[in-house]
Amino acid sequence: MTDIPASGAPAKGWRPYQIYVVGLLLAVTVCNYLDRIVLGVLQEPIKIELGLTDAQLGLLTGPAFALFYSLSGIPAARFAERFNRAGLLALAIAIWSGMTALCGVAQNFGQLLLYRIGVGAGEGGCIPISHSVLADYFTPRQRGLVMSVVSSAPPLATILAPLIGGFVAEAWGWRSAFLLLGLPGVVLSLLVWFTLKDPRKAAPANTERRPATFWADFKWLLGTPAFVFVFIGGAFVGIANAGIAGFTVSFLLRTHEFSLSQAGGIVGMTGIAGLVGAMLGGLLADKFSDSRGRSYVLVPALGSALAAVAYLVAFGAPDPRWAMPFLLAAAVAYNMKNGPLYAAIQNIVPSTMRATGTAVFMVAATVVGSTVGPLLTGVISDTVAGQRFAGPGAFTAICPGGRAPEGALESVNAACAQASASGLQVALLVMSAIFVISSVFLALASRSIRINDPTVAA
């Protein structure tokens, strides 16, 4: 296939089908993240209708999704090392889109938990499969920008989620938003099935070793210091981001008393800022790449450090006019890691481990990050709210769902609202500081990182 470059070939621009592949996989990844993050936009009306606690919300956005996301991601990656990746990706899209639609008919916490598990199980194969395909279409020093384009999906989904989650939910309810989100996956799964070519089938005979067992590959990853440091750094990035992303809308509603559509609009603006950060990170990583590929971890390290500062100011500021610009700045800084970090993984591992390397790395961002982040945020929020509740009795008993019941005294309403807002603010400040830890480990990865490609000069 003429669109498949040799790994070490100099970058000569993108050919038409390469552009199509990037666009298609970007759309797939947007769908992947949109179905994942929309719960953060819809969780306040869900919390009120179903009478949930913040800890339960954290469970839905964290462990319920993340554990099964990664449990399915590794076997999907192992299949992707051996079988047609287009067919596997099409099947994964169909599964997660169907489960997203089912979230709209959930009648209680248990049902919603089950459907979110299904979403996670379906989405687990998306990133490992799509990134391994992209790595086969582009050279190592093109991958920073390529991965940044496809990894602009999170900020794009952040823009779209409020439009669907905020405006559709306000007009027709949160259930309609979930049902609507299930439709694009049907179209995308058909496009992937019929139009995506697996480049591995058309590539010249591979001179590298054939795919080994998972445990042999896993041992190789554990014995590679650069990968280990990237994994740990990615875990702390995941913890901080998942906790913040899952509760930013709730923070704006509780602390600054925005409406759902207003808060969603602000989060949408952070999505636009995130696009800037994603493109900036990819361009910087490619521009300053050396023979070892150190820029692919140093750019994310810088972004994490800047994100920590910006988020601390945003969540600590008493005035929303101060909070908003720093939320935008944080979005730019955080998303600088999107493409470079994934490119670093593809550069570190051999070509026979590309899907597996990504899948194992996603354990850091999902099982560790998305499991710990939202749940820890919710637990800290509930704990601090209980300590600062000034009303009669226990916070959880007097304020079900974070609000006083109908007919309660005005003083009780105020006490519930103040405690709920204060608890969440403290939790988000803790999450913001965790970005500093990720920055340290990503910087450490730069000391041992190498591009694992024999055609790239050392």
What would you say this structure looks like, in words?
With 458 residues, this protein is mainly α. It has a single domain, classed as Growth Hormone, Chain: A. It has helices at residues 16-50, 54-61, 63-80, 85-103, 109-123, 126-137, 143-150, 153-172, 174-181, 183-195, 199-202, 214-222, 225-256, 260-287, 295-316, 320-335, 338-348, 354-388, 395-398, 410-445. It is globular and about 70 Å long. This is Major facilitator superfamily MFS_1. Keywords: Membrane, Transmembrane, Transmembrane helix, Transport.
The whole-number mean of residue pLDDT values reads 82
Q: Give the helices and strands as they follow along the chain.
A: HHHHHHHHHHHHHHHHHHHH
**Low-pLDDT residue intervals, each spanning 5 or more residues:** 6-11, 203-208
**Secondary-structure class:** mainly alpha
Alpha-carbon distance between the two ends: 28 Å
Mind summarizing the main beta sheet?
none
Percent of sequence in beta strands: under 5%
Q: Which descriptor suits the 3D outline?
A: globular
Q: What's the CATH H-level superfamily name?
A: MFS general substrate transporter like domains
- Tell me the CATH architecture: Up-down Bundle
- CATH fold-type name: Growth Hormone, Chain: A
Number of discrete domains: 1
Number of extended strands: 0
Helix content: over 70%
